[in-house]
Amino acid sequence: MEQGYIENGFIVDVSNAKKTSEIIYQLSTILDLPDAHCKKVCLKLGDIDLSTSELMSIKALVESMNSEIEFVTTLSRITVESAMELGLKVSELENKVPTPEFNQDEESAQATNKELEKALDKIFGDSGLDEKTFHAEKEMKKLKAESENAAPIELTEFKTSDSIAEETQPEEETPEEVEEPEIAEPSSVATPEFSEHIVQNDEPVENEEDLKEEFAELEDFNKQLDEVNKEVMEAYDDEADDFAQLQKSLRETEKLPTLYIQRTLRSGQSITADGNIVIIGDVNPGSEIKAKGDITVWGILGGIAHAGADGNKYARIRALKMHAIQLRIADVFARRPDSINIPYIQKTETFVPEEARVKHKQIIISKLHEN
Amino acid sequence: MDGRVIVITSGKGGVGKTTTNANIGTALAKAGKKVVMIDTDLGLRNLDLLLGLENRIVYTIVDVVEERCKLKQALVKDKKNPNLCLLAAAQTRDKTAVTEEQLKDICEQLKKDFDFILVDCPAGIEQGFQNAVAGASEAIVVTTPEMSAVRDADRIIGLLEAKEEIKSYKLLINRVRPNLIKSNDMMSVDDVVEILSADLIGIIPEDTGIITSTNKGEPIVNDDKSPAGKAYKNVARRIMGEDVPFLNLEEDTSIVGKMKKFFSGLMGKEK
Lengths: 371, 271
Description:
Helix content of chain A: 40-55%
Number of strands of chain B: 8
Order of helices and strands of chain B: EHEHHHEEHEHEHEHHEHHH
Strand content of chain A: 15-25%
Number of helices of chain B: 12
Number of helices of chain A: 7
CATH class of the largest domain in chain A: Mainly Beta
CATH architecture of the largest domain in chain A: 3 Solenoid
Oligomer: heterodimer
Strand order of the largest sheet of chain A: 7-18-17-14-12-10-8
Helix content of chain B: 40-55%
């Protein structure tokens, strides 16, 4: 990874990334830094081919931190096309020529690199501590579950749908869980290897043992591929089940009574409803909403929101601006990351409506129009 | 372990009770003591914000009292210091949700596991104050060198003296501005001590760093350069029984101050 500075912004070099998820992971690590907010980002991509939707999710990630992509450099023609489609400034590099931005102010770039490294260390240090508290709180949850005979509440930080695949939180992952992006990777990574084998087979091979070994390898690989395929199919079946349940629950939520509130909820006020809640106004920090169905806030959601309070894990929370201190859906729990420390949200901002829902026992937040 | 229960109170609002609580608590925890802070300001809680723990609160003191969770479950551990815990107040309830007996009971339970229990008292002298004081055996009265704050502190000290449980109370003077005292625009520390005739435990200078630290959710004692942070650390040391001299606020350490001193010295010699 390499970073440099441009005017009111910085360059992010993710040219070594071979997968979209890697780019997103690296980018989110950098964007998590407090210095990285509200800046222009110059994204330096390698020869990776990005589709429009992939690039759009990267763009959304950058924009979620109030930054914007100023410029994209890439070695791939496909990425160029997708970038053009999204209206991003782009330049295709024929060869791996270093961009001029990197040569100028090399000293300052190095200095900022050091700063960034320090900041990164700090963040990782912090996350370590977070994990400790995380465990403590998890234990707390366990105790609570024992006392109430309820299912254990999972505690996670907010995640966007983009970063969820890359986040490594072994506590959260159950072994049978299979995530789509992960499944797709082995086959795509392995394909070049496969073709290599064929090429080698075309060449005259004198040693028979070598040939046997290669065949064995090939068979092994085929087996692996079968396993992966099987997993994919199982995952699809699960998804299908999930989808049917979701449809059913959506119909049920529709039947619930809806409480309609046209004012701003202030600190200390709490609203509980047996059905859905719609609030036209802000939900300020310090207030609480609890609904058996969905919660929709036409404004800034800054307080605590608990949807699906009677255990409906398909319940959703939507808001024009999702800035909740805590989100709870059924028995899943998420808190706002410590890295987001904005005292107040400017109301002049153009809001992008977001939706929180449960996926793989975690609460994830995604842009509303992406569903 | 038999912990000390100290209530931090003032009568008047806005003099820095919560800030004092957060900073003394953090300083004590940094010194290796096990500290728990109880926010009894139900409905107007702030202590969690100052410590940056708002997003971690799951259960509050009301949940403990109404037996929705165990006391240990409601203790929120600090981000940095494992010795420091917070028992948060409920934001959606009012002062009547907890009674004096219940708070006393909570303090008794916490005494077993902690060295210090700091109780953050709400402003006023109503139920909230009575609750906060109920479990405490020591008190720190926070005031500023302003007539209204001193008057309210006097009232509070009177109420504290009437309580049998409060064995001792100390005075902490917050937001002291040496420049204004010099120009006779502000009551001096000595004046305040004289009016209230109470033992002093700390003098905290006015520090703009407090504002940023509050907004960041990080107590100012974590900043080694801040004058207020230093003063709070000294207060914590005095609470632990050390004999620490008070910060000399009179000395002007700015260049202009030093030059003034130099010139006034010259003038004095000439005469």
